[in-house]
Structure prediction request, 623 residues.
Amino acid sequence: QPAHNNQGLDLLSIQSESDLDLSLHSLEQMGFTETQAEHVCAVFSQFRGSTGKHALSTITALFVLGLNAASMLKVFEKCPELYTVREAQLQQRINNLRKLGFVEGSLQRVVVHYPQILTVPAKKIRNRVAFLHEKCLFTMQQVTGILRDSPAIVMENIDHLEYKFQYVYFRMGVKQAEMVKSKLFRLTLDEVRNRHCFLERRGLYETPDKNGQTMIINPKLDSVLNCDEDTFLKVAKASAEEYDVFKRLVEREWQQQEQQLGSFGAD
Amino acid sequence: EKWAATRPKHPPTNLALQHFDATYSAQLGQMWPSVRCALLSERKYGALFNNFSQDALLEDLEAQGCRDFISNIETEVQPSDPADGDAVYQQLSALQLSPNIRCFVFPRGDISRFKPARPDQGGFLGYYLMDAASVLPCLALNVQEGHSVLDLCAAPGGKTLALLQTYSIGFLCVNDSSVSRTSRLRKVLRSYVPKQHLTNEKIRISTLDGTKWGEIERNTFDRVLVDVPCTTDRHSVLEDDNNIFSKIRTGERRRLPQLQLQLLQAAIEAACPGGEIVYSTCTLSQNQNAGVVEQAIAWARENHGIQLEVVDLRPLTHMFRNTFHFARDLHLGEMVVPHLAANFGPIFLCKLRRLT
Ligand SMILES: C[S@@+](CC[C@H](N)C(=O)[O-])C[C@H]1O[C@@H](n2cnc3c(N)ncnc32)[C@H](O)[C@@H]1O
Prediction:
C-alpha cells in the first residue's frame, strides 16, 4: 500500500501495537493539534464500545489516503458513522472507488466532500454505476463525473433517480453530456420540475419533437439548473414573488395528480 | 409513468396557446411570459357574498383569512398618495359604486381555496364562487335606485347575481341565447335568491338572440351589461372540452368580433339616452376588446346619430389596484391582467354613456 507521508508511516507502526487505545496523546502523535485531538475524542466517545474499536483503523485508513488532520476533522463532523466501519470494508470501498475511475486528488476530494460514500457497500455503488451506465447510457467517464459532482446519488432512491433521468431526457429533451455538465443529480426532482415547468409555462422552454426540433431556442440546462435562484430568475425573467407562488401552486397540483393516479390504481 | 406522446397532435389547448403566443407577445411584449404562466396556473376565485342568505358567514370568511376587497378599499386608498392622489380621490366620490356588492378574496400570494358554499336553513347558498375581477363590470355599471337594467348575455348568471345584490334595481331583464345555459341561470337564481325577489314585476328571463334587441326594445334601459361570448382565454389554454380553438369551431371563432360588435350595437340601442352600457369580455385580445368598442362608437354615430361618451374608469382601477393587476395605458377601457400572485382575469371592461 502506498503511504505517501511520514504521518502515515508513523501510524502504521502505531497500529501494529494492536490494541492501542485512542488517546489524546496518540492523536497528537498523528499530527492533530491539541484542540483537534480533543474534538475527535469528544466525537469518538459517542461511539465507544463495540463499534468504537474501528475508530483507529478508520483514522489510519484516511491518513493513508492522504487526508490531513484538518480535513479529517471535517470528515468526522459530517459523518461520525464512519467510525463504525470495519477496516477491511473501508479498504474495499476505497479500492472500489479507485476502480471506478477516481484518481488521486479527486478520490480525496469526494471523501472530504461526502464521507458518507464510504459507509455505502461497494456492491450498492456498483449497482448504481451499472444503472447509470447500462440503463441511462452514460459513458463510464460520465458516470465517474456524476459520482464526483453528486456523490449523494449513491444514497438516493433508485426509482427517484430513474424518474429524474427520464424527466430530463424525455420531457426536457436533454442528452447525457449536458446532464453531466449541469450537475443535474445535485438537485431533487422537485427542484428540477419546478424550474422546468416555470420556464415552460412562461413560454421559455419547449419539449423538442421527435427530430429534436423546437420553435424557440431553449436555454441550456446548465443555465437553468446549475445556478442559484436569483440567477435562475434572470433566465426566467420573473420576480421572486411569482416563483414563490408558482412553487406552492404546482406542489398542490402534483399532489392532486398523484392522488388521482393513486385512486385510479386502487380500482 | 410513460413519456411517449399519446395525446392528439394538435389539441385545441395547444392551438390556443400558439395563437396567444403569436398575438399576445406582440400586444403585451415583456409582460407576456408572466401573463402566460398565470393563465396556465390555477386561478384565484372570489366569493360573491349572497345578501339573501341567512347564514352568518361574514365572520367565518374573515376567520379563514379572506376579506371583502370592495369595502376594504378605505385602507388602500391613501389621499396622501403623492402621484395623482388628490384628483383621483375626488373622482372617487363622484364614482358611486353599486352598493351592497361584497366579494371576498384571499390576500395577494395566498393560494388558499374557498370551500363550496353550503345552503342555509332556507336552502340558499351563502356565496357564489367566480373570478373576483368579474365583479368589476357590475360595479362599474353603477346601478341606481329604481333603474331598469338589461343583462344581455347573462348565463350562467354570476354577474346577474352580483347586480341583484344591490337591492336597487327597479326592473331586471336577463337574457341569454342559449337554452341550456339559461336553464342553468334559472337554477343559480333559485339557489341564491328568494322567490319574492324573482316575481314577474321585478325580473324577466328570456332566451333571445341578443343581437336583435335593438329591434325589440329601443331606448329603454338605464343600464345595459353586455358580457359577450369571447375566446375565454383561460378556458382555452386549459380545457380541451368545449374549446373554441378546436378545428371545427374555427369559423365560429373568426366570427366572434363580428358577433361581439352586433351585441354591443344592440346594447347601445337598448339603452335610453343618458343611459350607460358596460361592455366586458374575459379575453386579452385587442380585436375583441377595444377593437369592438371603437367600431361600435363609430357605427352608433354614423348610422344612428347616437353620440357616445367613453366613461373614465381610472378611479375604479385606482381603487382596486392592490387587488388586481390592471393593464397600463390602454387607450380604451380597462383590463385585469392575470398575475401569479393575484391570479384573476383576464377581464376587459369599457363603459359608454349615451349622450343622445
Ligand atoms: C361570457 S358568457 C356570460 C357570462 C355571464 N355574464 C356571467 O357572468 O355568468 C357569454 C354568454 O353569451 C351567450 N351568447 C352567445 N351569443 C349570444 C347572442 N347572440 N345573444 C345572447 N347571448 C349570447 C352565451 O350563451 C354565453 O352564455
Observations:
- Chain A touches chain B at residues 163, 166, 170-171, 198, 201-204, 236-238, 241-242, 244-246, 248-250, 252-253 (CB under 8 Å).
